[in-house]
Amino acid sequence: MLKHRLIPCVLLKDWQLVKSIQFDSFRTIGHPTATVRVYNARNVDELIVLDIDASLKNEQINTEIISDMADECFMPLTIGGGIEDIDGIYKVLNAGADKISINSKAIEDQSFIRQSSRIFGSQCIVCSIDVKKVNGQYRVFNKKKGVLDIDPLILAKEYETMGAGEILLTSVDNEGTQKGYDLELLRLFKDQLQIPVIINGGMGKPHHGTEAIKNGADALAAAYIFHFSQYTPAQIKEELYQSNIPVRIPV
Amino acid sequence: MIAIIDYSMGNLRSVEKAFQKIGANVVITKDHDIIKRADKIVLPGVGAFKEGMENLKQFGLIALLNEQVLQNKKFFLGICLGMQLIGSRSYEVEETPGLNWIKGDVVKFNSGKLKVPHVGWNNIRFIKPNVLFKNIPDQTDFYFVHSYYFESGTQGATTVTDYGIDFVSSVNKDNIFGCQFHPEKSQKFGLEILKNFANLNR
């Protein structure tokens, strides 16, 4: 049986891995390769790293550090941040990533998803959508442009049609708050897409993961809980397992 | 030396790193002389079947692989697309003949309620003992990412995995091995499979 995945989703900034709170302040997690080694030993299911220097400062993505991380990462590695063209995808994959995550570029030009999924396969293309609730309605949020008048579910369906392999759905309001995932947002997405939805933002306790899966998430992304709480990945999986959710329990 | 076949179909470096981690001597190559000198051959691959076969053909690798694997009986491991390519034919995009080393068609998951691609960790179930799975418990989870699977029937199958149906998740015939999942991305037990392959002796 296919298992639900538990995925650390961390940011790369100034050669360090960091965690943001509502996309604003940052706390340092640690050195990239050392952190990857720990994740690998703790049997998390995948890893997502977003290079925020590249996306916000329009710098080239740091392939040197990605390559160092990939050397220690014997699980799927998704890299995102500032990917603007096919050449950028080649560079990141050649550095050792398995998938890439696209956000801003996909909003600007959806044909880029079609183009890249045709070359690299849908399994390689994760489309990331950041969502903020404004006046009771969910809207797409962009780090540079702010809130956009775009419905996130409609955008996700368009991405799926264009060839996206997975959706990384982040609630900006819940991100870094430890108050749990945005279940209302998840319910909007439930059974609406053929491709997996990775929910991100808000996991503070293991039972938040159970709630999210029961409300339609295929996989759970988180960061805060792994670094600034007493919970380990094994404890989170144990809680999911006890709630009859199929997860990979390390032997 | 183990030759990892470079035919421009993705994730070669991941496979190389994983073999290096277990101390194996590996080379990523499409050079015919190096492949002839290798004692084992690995065909990884992510992507479309048709493009995979076209690339093998373009680099003159089909005849060479037939010679090295079928005649010289070198140990061969196909991973993901690399396993599918040893089948008879695929219906991805259009009907395309494969290497036909193990009989069977490569067909798409009939989606229904289940999401396609099949992506994530899923367990294998042994249907016959196999050297590739030495020191690996039955029901161990491995990382999969694919939309098509290899209908090899019972003749070649060594494990099956449940995704709506029991599909063949690994095969073996003589010196030829294949796994649909990615051992290079499956942490400890994935590396164990690569170690078992690297340690095969004639």
Description:
The complex is a heterodimer of chains A (251) and B (202). Chain A has 251 residues and is of the alpha/beta class. Chain A has a single domain (5-242), classed as TIM Barrel, CATH 3.20.20. Chain A contains eleven helices and twelve strands. Chain A has an eight-stranded parallel barrel, surrounded by six helices. In chain A, strand 8 (137-142) and strand 9 form a beta hairpin. In chain A, helix 1 packs parallel to helix 3 and helix 9 packs across helix 11. Chain A starts with a strand and ends in a 9-residue tail after the last helix. The mean pLDDT of chain A is 92. By secondary structure, chain B is α/β, with parallel strands linked by helices. Chain B has one domain: Rossmann fold (3-Layer(aba) Sandwich), CATH 3.40.50. Helix content of chain B is 28%, strand content 31%. Chain B is built from seven helices and 14 strands. Chain B has an eight-stranded mixed beta sheet. Chain B is globular and about 50 Å long. Chain B starts with a strand and ends with a helix. In chain B, 52% of the residues are buried.
SSE map:
The complex is a heterodimer of chains A (251) and B (202).
Chain A: E1 5-13, E2 16-21, E3 25-30, H1 32-41, E4 47-51, H2 52-56, H3 63-70, E5 77-80, H4 86-94, E6 99-102, H5 104-108, H6 111-120, E7 125-134, E8 137-142, E9 146-147, H7 152-162, E10 166-171, H8 183-189, E11 197-200, H9 206-214, E12 219-222, H10 224-227, H11 233-242
Parallel strand pairs in A: 1-4, 1-12, 4-5, 5-6, 6-7, 7-10, 10-11, 11-12
Antiparallel strand pairs in A: 1-2, 2-3, 7-8, 8-9
Chain B: E1 2-5, H1 12-21, E2 26-29, H2 32-37, E3 40-43, H3 49-58, H4 61-71, E4 75-79, H5 81-84, E5 89-90, E6 96-97, E7 105-108, E8 118-123, E9 125-126, E10 141-146, E11 148-151, H6 153-156, E12 157-163, E13 165-173, E14 176-179, H7 187-198
Parallel strand pairs in B: 1-2, 1-3, 3-4, 4-14, 5-7
Antiparallel strand pairs in B: 5-6, 7-11, 8-10, 9-12, 12-13, 13-14
